[in-house]
Amino acid sequence: MADLKELFTAVVEMQEDTALELTQKYLDEGVPALDIFNCYQDALAEIGKRFEKQLYFIPELIMSGEMMKAASEIIKPHLTDDSSAGGGGQAKLGKVLMATVEGDIHDIGKNIASMMLDLNGMEVKDIGVDVPADKIIDEAKAFGADVIGLSGLLTLAFDPMKAVVDKLQEQGMRDKIKVLIGGGQMDEQVCKYVGADAFVTDAVVGVNYVKGWLS
Questions:
Q1: pTM, two decimal places
Q2: Could you give the percent of the chain with pLDDT greater than 70?
């Protein structure tokens, strides 16, 4: 992998113009788009850690999310070229509903995961942040979701995630829909507590789970 320290630093230090210029420069130099994308993921993980330690706050999270969106627009066409990802006119592999759960407005990881799922041939519907459990269930029904991806950065996301799984159970839908939870605080214990099928702290791993379930 190319040495992308300069890009990592620019993203972490909120230097948006520099980060986007470097992104274009590296692509022009032939650095693989996936390497650049992974560098952004690493930088966003570092920003998440700083947020947890209260070194960064909501404005930084929002700004880094905007930076990621802008970078994604530059990187996305190259990612499709780089990988054997299913774009084009292929039939979609399945439907994934994405949401950040009630009480949490963190959406960087969700946005990355949504983009990666889309590139890998899924039909993705992202219903945003701070979404109550009932709305997630209603949207999943209307969309015909095969998988629900629930995102949350903070520990207060655990109970709202559990509420979604409980409601799926109550409505007899649990065996029809897989539930994937994602975020920096997720681990095996949280996954068991929530009742999810799997947890991830990395968007690429999440894509692999979903592909495995739907193939």
A1: 0.67
A2: 93
Say if CB 191 and CB 199 are below 8 A apart.
Answer: yes
* Alpha-carbon span 21 to 123, nearest angstrom: 31
How many angstroms separate the Cα of 15 from the Cα of each of 3, 64, 118, 150, 177?
A: 18, 10, 28, 29, 40
In a domain, 89, yes or no: no
54: amino acid identity, one letter: Q
**Exposure string for 167-201, b = 16+ CB within 10 A, e = fewer:** bbeeeeebeebbbbbbbbbbeeebbeebbbbbbbe
Cα–chain-centroid distance for residue 33? 17
Q: Are residues 70 and 138 in the same domain?
A: no
One-letter amino acid at 113 equals A
Q: What is the pLDDT of residue 139?
A: 98
Sequence-ordered list of residues with C-beta below 8 angstroms from that of 86, at least 6 positions apart, any chain: 92, 93, 119, 120, 121
Tell me: the pLDDT tens digits for 90-135? 567 899 999 999 999 888 788 888 877 887 789 999 999 999 999 9
Burial letters for 94-113: b for 16+ Cβ neighbours within 10 Å, e otherwise?
Answer: bbbbbbbbbebebbbbbbbb
Domain of residue 76: give its range: 5-82
